[in-house]
Amino acid sequence: MPMEVMSITAVFAVIFGIMLFLSFVPVGLWISAISAGVRVSIFSLIGMRLRRVSPHRIIRPLIRVTKANMPVPINQLESHYLTGGNVDAVVNAIIAAQRANLELPFERAAAIDLAGRDVFEAVRMSVTPKVIETPMISAMAINGIEVKAVARVTVRTNIMRLVGGAGEATIIARVGEGIVTTIGSAATHKEVLENPDRISRKVLEKGLDTGTAYEILSIDIADIDVGRNIGAQLMIDQAEADKRIAQAKAEERRALAVAQEQEMRARVEEMRAKVVESESEVPRALSDALRSGNFGYMDYINLQNKLADTKMRDKLGSMQMEFSAKPVDSTKTE
């Protein structure tokens, strides 16, 4: 009985050991690689496990690239995986590039992938160009009329400039700048409406794809329309601003005139007060002069006569002026 128990235990131990070995060493994957003509040793797979590299992420792309007659050393695949790259995307990209007769070495594809670009999408855009539509771009011709345009830019990926090259936002910004410049240099908006291809030609001549990850194939004007009369609106706004400035200056002058008038009135009132004060001193001075003997009684009488005579002359003069101002009736005189 103890011998039977020991034999059963040994069998279970062997089975457990085999299962543990198969879970650690991907024998099935190794057999698939050998059957596909990929030479990889079982010890390489064990080493991948020890380096915490998923053998499936390396062997399966290696099988695909070998079948495509593009041998890539397994060390390069494993190195790209350890640096955080997507081995499947890189392998798919170089296979697609080979099918499209594009030159794309594994090192450049790996660099593009590590730069954060979708390398497979880049290869597909090199084969099938992409159309980028700009938003509505507004510009003003020399005659002041606003012109609105929408452009479609056909681009394809330039793989050689994909690392470090500018993206779609730069292409859209440069195309928009070129459209604004072209419309702004037109004498009238009619020139732009009659020849929309003029915009495409001038924008393409500027070489807008320099320093970008794309190559511009064509620029087509999808929509063009006339907007506001910005020149007239600017003139109206300028006239309104000049009017407000003139009104402000006139109000400033009026306020200054009112202030000066009030100041003059204050001075006149002050002078009147001084005159009244001086006139109030005359009787007192006259009384003092009479008491001191500097001014006699007869002198006082003569002064009163002169004052009365002066008032009478003033009254007669005013009456004469009123009489001379009245129109003369010729019928009465006849």
Structural commentary:
The chain has 334 residues and is α+β, with helices and mostly antiparallel strands. It has helices at residues 2-24, 27-35, 42-50, 55-67, 74-82, 87-99, 106-114, 119-127, 168-185, 189-194, 197-205, 230-292, 297-325, 330-333, and strands at residues 130-133, 137-140, 145-157, 214-229. A hairpin with a 4-residue loop joins β2 (137-140) and β3. The chain is elongated and about 170 Å long. The model has no long low-confidence stretch (mean pLDDT 77).
Question: Helical region count?
Answer: 14
Radius of gyration, taken over Cα atoms and rounded to an integer in Å: 53 Å
Derived from helix and strand composition plus strand pairing, the structural class reads alpha+beta
Multimeric state? single chain
Ends distance: 178 Å
Biggest sheet features: 4 strands, antiparallel
Helix fraction, binned, reads 55-70%
* Global outline: elongated
Give the low-pLDDT segments: none
Strand content: 5-15%
For the secondary structure, the number of strands is 4
Could you tell me the mean pLDDT? 77
Could you spell the SSE succession in H and E letters?
HHHHHHHHEEEHHHEHHH
Fold blueprint:
Layout: H1 2-24, H2 27-35, H3 42-50, H4 55-67, H5 74-82, H6 87-99, H7 106-114, H8 119-127, E1 130-133, E2 137-140, E3 145-157, H9 168-185, H10 189-194, H11 197-205, E4 214-229, H12 230-292, H13 297-325, H14 330-333
Antiparallel strand pairs: 1-3, 2-3, 3-4
